Every structure is written in structure tokens, then in C-alpha cells.
Amino acid sequence: MSKTNDEEHGGAREDEGPVDDRAQFSALLEDSAEDLYEHAPCGYLSTQLDGRIAKVNTTLLDWLGYQPEDLVGRKYFSELLTVGGRLYHETHFAPMLRMHGEISGIALELKATDGSRLPVLVTSTVKKGGGGQPLLIRTTIFDARDRRAYETELLRARQAADRERDRLQALTTTLQKTLLPPTLANVPGLDVCAHYHVASVDEVGGDFYDLFPLAAGTWGMFLGDVCGKGVAAAAVTSLARYTLRAAAVYHPDPVAVLGNLNTVLNHEYNGADPRFCTVVFGLLTPDRVHGGFQITLASGGHPPALLMRADGTADILPTPGGQLIGVLPDAHISTTTVHLAPGDTLLLHTDGLTEAHTNAAIGGGERYGDDAFLDFGRALAPTTATGTISAVRGLLDTFGTGVDDDTAVLAIHVPRPHSDEQQ
Amino acid sequence: MTKRLSLHTRTTPAGPVIELVGELDHHTAPEIRAALPALSLNPGQQLVLDLGTLTFCDSTGITVLIAARNHALAAEASIVLAAVPDRVSRIFRIVGLEQVFLIYLTAQDAEAAWRPTAG
Fold first, then answer.
1. Phi, psi of B102 (to 5 degrees)
2. How far away is chain B from the Cα of A39, in angstroms, using its nearest Cα?
3. STAS domain location, by residue (chain B) (predicted)?
4. Which of B63, B69, B73, B88 to substitute to test the interface with A, most A CBs within 10 Å?
5. Consecutive 10-residue averages of pLDDT for chain B (119 residues)
6. What CATH number should be reported for the domain holding residue B47?
7. Which residue of A has its CA nearest to B99?
8. What is the pLDDT of residue A30?
């Protein structure tokens, strides 16, 4: 039964009414065709194929403030539209209607006689004769004021969300910067370069590095990676960075420095949400006798450094047995000592580089890996600090979105004497 | 992002065995970490983490293993790992975890090696 569609006037429910009521109810429906047309809850409009208005219902006339004689035979449908709407009608609406015989749900604005504008949704179909020839255009027009208000509200909310997101990104960027040294210390006789690759502008990463002077002509450096991301990781990064700087001043032995960091982090973070970092700390001492630098590296569970020699060979610098820092009461820290001769380059990195997806663009799951990284070093040697970092940046670029964790790299290089004479 | 990790738990007389299937990284780790406190462990029991079907584990994934260890130790239980894949054991070597966890070839080996401790 389709009667329920039009029961507005009724109150005449079939089960409660006697026969009279039912007759009355049918009567209501029967004389409704003309009335429904004139007072339908939407505007009806019939136009000739050129758009001249042939018939218009009362609803639409009332919305716009016209009398039938103002429009019928006098105006074109497009004349009811705003200037922008008219343009759209000429260039899209009418051609689409001609081509497909119908067009639906187009948002336009109608001009009322009082100058106000009425946002509407317009649907038109072409009525065809028996031979398929087009005869006239029928158009329904729905009041879209509520919908427009809703859309405006939606737009406003979206703009507010965009502003918040920009604010968050600015905050994240600032926070990230505070976790890295603005510039690296200038070490006489050493070429130094670093790079921090941000994987996500929405989240602070947990990588960190620094290079700074210690007493008596020695230098300290570190590079590390706090597990996880976001503000919680940034808090650990900050704590780790300042603890390392302070501990190194107090007692620069690399094992003692990392031991202190382990104690501090252990106090702060453990239990159900453990936070740890892996870090390599180095003590740099100029070698007055042989030239170059003597470097003592201590590793707390960090991926080994890559040593690229002046003679074009390259290898990893193992620091086996070192344990991650911050979750074990007595983390074992392992050390290694290396002489960095003129022409040699040492590269420290975080695993964002080696864990990067190499074919992210085509959905591949392969990760770059340590072996490829060693090959990269072998192809690069001999090199310089700046040469190394620019090569790493090029490598990261080729991974694109495949780098899903932040990556920090720090390269130190002892320039050859008279390097500019050797081409 | 679709979850690339699932977790299967079964109970044995020696204690629970948790099998981790998929990638354990910063996308999947929080959920597993959150599930740990609900894991019931009695003193003297042994928690086995079966990593045989773990395809990836990054630094955040390692926090899950450490959180599991903390949970086990707090319950006066022990924790062992089983079937650690080569890739993962290489990461363990780098971060020095192979000295922290007792590792067995299979979960069955771990179960067979368990001895109830008196008291």
C-alpha cells in the first residue's frame, strides 16, 4: 500500500477509522494530482528545449516571489540563476542534458525577486516523443539551504582541523630541532657532516646525535636511536642527549658515559612500557705522532659503524656484545678502538636507513639491509664526510616513502694533507 | 594500515606459549604490549614466546619482548624465546639481547626443558 506516503493530512489510520474516514482519505489522494504538482515540497519547472519556461509550480513561484505571468513564456530557466550559475548552465548543465537526456543533483543558486539567493539541487530530464525526438525539459528543484549550511559548517570544521594540523607540525618541527645540535662543533683537522631525515612531519622521531668539545683537546660524539616515536620518545631522546653531554664532561670514558645513561634511563622507564635506546659514543683524540685521530667507540646495542679507508676499502667496525641502554640493570657495553688516518671516513647511522623499504613505490616488502649498506660503503670509499652524507641523502631519496623511521647519519673524515693537490 | 601481526596463545603445564605471526614493529607493538598485563602467569611457570613465524622485528618490537620479560619476572616466572628467525637473531646480536633471553630451537624444546621449581 502506497497510501502511507501521503498521509500528512490524515490522522486517518485505517485500523481506527470507519468506512467514512477511509473514503475521505481516498478522496484526499484522488484530487491530489494537480495539488501535488502545485504544492509539492519541491519546485517543478517545464521548459522548451531552448530553456524558455513553459510551466512552473506554485512552490517554486513562492520561493522566488514571482507570479506565473512573470515567468511563463517570458523568461528562460538560466535567467533564474546567478551569474556564476548561468555560466555553469551554459558550459556544463545544458550540454550534459542534451547529450545524456538527463542530469541530476546539480548544486546551483536561484535569484529571488527580493535579491536573495536560494541554494538548490537541480535535476532535469528531457521528455521525448514517440519517435524519440526531444519535446521539452522537466526540472525538479530542491531547497538546499540546510544542506548548504551543513556544508559550510563542514568546511569550517575542516579548515579548523587543517589549522590545528599545521600548528602540530610546526610544534613537531620545533621540538625536533631542539633535539639536534644547531651546528656541529668545528674540530680542527676533522671534516664533519651530519644529516637527519624526518620520516613523518606529524611525529617527532627518536634519533639523536652530537659532537662537542671535552677537556684537553679531546672531543666527544654520539649518535643514537630511542625506540618508538612521538612525544614520549622525544622525552627520552632529550633526557638521553643531555645525560650524555653531562656524563661525558664528568667522566669521558665511553664505557662510563653509557653506563651513566643506562642508570638514568633505568630509573625513569621500565615495566609495562619500557623505553630504551641504542647508542654509540665516541671519544676523539688527535694523534700527534701518526696524524689523524684516535677514536674509542663504545656501543650500547647500536648498529656498528662503517669505516671507509683512504685506500678504497670499507668494512664495518664491530662492537659485539654491547647491550641496549635503559632496560637492563647492568647493560654490557663493548668498546673498540680505531685509528682514523688521513683520507679515512667513519660513518655512524641509525637503523632507519638499513630498515628502509627499497621498493615502497611498487609495494615491495624488501628492506635495504646491512649487506647492501656495506656494499654502498665499498662503492663510496675513499670519500669525505660531506661526500658520504650527500651520497646517503641520495640513497634515502631513492627509497622515497620507503623510509618509515627517522634516520640520523654522522660522518667524520680526516682530510689528507694537501688534498687539493691530489685530483 | 592493516595489522600485519597476529597473536596465538595456548596454555601448557609449563605455562603459556605465545606465538607471534607477522611483523612486530611500531604499528603492531602497542597492541601486543597492552595485551601482556592480562596474561596470567604463576610463580615458577615459564612464558614461551614462539617467534618462528615472525617476519620482522624492529626496535619498537623489541620493547614488546622486554615488556614480556618484565611481566614474567614480576610474576616470579621465567621467559624463554623459541625458534628465533635469523633476521631477528641478527638484530638480537646487535642490541645484545641474545644474552638476556634463553633461546630454544622450538617451542616443544622449551616446554620439554622446563622443570617446576619447588616452592
1. -75, 130
2. 51
3. 5-114
4. B63
5. 76 91 86 86 93 84 88 92 88 85 91 75
6. 3.30.750.24
7. A321
8. 62
Mutate to test the interface with B, among A202, A204, A208, A227 (most CBs of B within 10 A): A227
Q: Interface of chain A against chain B, CB under 8 Å? A: 225, 227-229, 270-276, 278, 300-304, 320-324, 327-328, 331-332, 351, 355, 367, 370, 405
The three three-digit cell numbers of residue A252, written as one number:
669521558
Q: What is the mean pLDDT of residues A342-350?
A: 96
What is the rounded CA–CA span in Å between residue A45 and residue A102? Answer: 14
- Separation of CA B63 from chain center: 11
- What domains, with CATH codes, occur in chain A? 31-143 (3.30.450.20), 179-421 (3.60.40.10)
Cβ pair B51, B83 in contact under 8 A: yes
pLDDT higher than threshold 80 for residue A18: no
Alpha carbons A300 and A38: distance in angstroms, whole number: 83
Determine whether the interchain pair A228/B59 forms a contact, defined as Cβ–Cβ distance below 8 Å.
Answer: yes
How do residues A294-304 score in pLDDT, each as one tens digit? 999 999 999 99
Q: pTM, whole model, 2 decimals?
A: 0.69
Count how many domains chain B has: 1
Residue A421 has pLDDT above 70, yes or no: no
> Cβ of B67 and A273 within 8 Å?
yes
- Check residues A182 and A360 and name the one with the higher pLDDT: A182
Show the beta-strand stretches assigned E in A66-133: 102-111, 117-128
Bridge pairing between strands B15-24 and B46-50: parallel
Confirm whether B67 is domain-assigned: yes
Kindly determine whether residue B62 and residue A270, on different chains, have CB atoms separated by under 8 Å.
Answer: no
Amino acid at A44: Y
Q: Is residue B71 part of a domain?
A: yes
> Which is higher by pLDDT, B2 or A85?
A85
Q: Is residue B119 part of a domain?
A: no
